[in-house]
Amino acid sequence: MEFSFGTVALVFFIIALVFIFKTINVVPQQHAVVVERLGKFHAVLAPGLNIVVPFIDRIAYKHSLKEIPLDVPPQVCITKDNTQLQVDGILYFQVTDAMRASYGSSNYIQAITQLAQTTLRSVIGKMELDKTFEERDHINTTIVNAIDESAANWGVKVLRYEIKDLTPPAEILHAMQRQITAEREKRALIAASEGRRQEQINIASGEREAATLRSEGERQAAINRAQGEASAIVALADASAAALRQVGAAIREPGGMDAVNLRVAEHYVDAFAKLAKTNNSLIVPANMGDMSSVIASALQIVKAQK
Questions:
Q1: Same domain for 197 and 156
Q2: Could you report the per-residue pLDDT of 4-17, keeping only the tens digit for each?
Q3: 212: number of Cβ within 10 Å
């Protein structure tokens, strides 16, 4: 009898533990739990301690509210110029409505993946091969906008899409590499020709500046010589004028005229003494023997000039 009572008590204790375990539900942070009551949506449990009715309420779905990276499988897309291009990308999304994520789609992850692939094929099909490498940001933005509009019904927010790799066929890749090599060689040739052109311009400019400097130097030298010669002439004229003024002043003094007469006579005699000789012939005046008449003639010339 005691064994039966103890057994019953143990059974009730176990049932109580199960009841408590089923009643108390702890939801972690950044998680959401969807509860169904009798098979119908009842509530979304928030993070923390929650109470549910055992055997009536059922935990139907659990969702993480964190940002989730989703690797979109690589696929082959056809560009506008009929070139095959293998594209690999990654999608970032977040569950924002746990109820819609539970009942809006049977598998929202698969739905997002398929929608991302079909949208990517559509966007790539409208672009040429060269543009696909240049317009990555445009592709990413277009895919996010297209998926986010549909994913709103699934309680999912698409945050961004990033293309990881764009791989054209091997022959296209080789052709692009050859094109890049040719373009680089072209730029190198242009740069070399521009360098030679600039070098010739610099040489011509240097020669022109040197010629200009030489001509300026020669002009300045000529100006300096002319100014020197003019200064010398002026100085000589000034000296001659000063000498003449001194001579005139001396003549006006007492006995000055006699000195002039004597000086003229001396020069006259000296001139005849130094008379030029031409072809070994000596030229002398006819009245050389009459020196007094010569001196008188010289004095008469001085008086006439006065």
A1: no
A2: 666 767 777 777 77
A3: 10
For residues 31 and 63, the answer to whether their CB atoms sit within 8 Å is yes
Cα separation, 161 vs 70, in Å, equals 9
Nearest Cα residue to 119 out of 148, 81, 95: 148
Q: Is residue 168 predicted with pLDDT exceeding 90?
A: no
Clarify whether residues 152 and 236 are in a common domain. Answer: no
Does this model's pTM top 0.85? Answer: no
Helices (H) and strands (E) in the chain, counts: 8, 10
Q: Could you report the per-residue pLDDT of 179-202, keeping only the tens digit for each?
A: 778 888 888 888 888 888 888 898
Mean pLDDT throughout 51-71? 87
Residues of the domain holding 42: 2-64
Average pLDDT on 28-35 reads 90
* Whether residue 248 is found in the same domain as residue 260: no
Q: Which helix (H) or strand (E) holds 183?
A: helix 170-252
Q: How far apart are the first and last CA of the chain?
A: 185
Shared domain check, 154 and 136: yes
The residue out of 121, 137, 168 marking a domain boundary is: 168
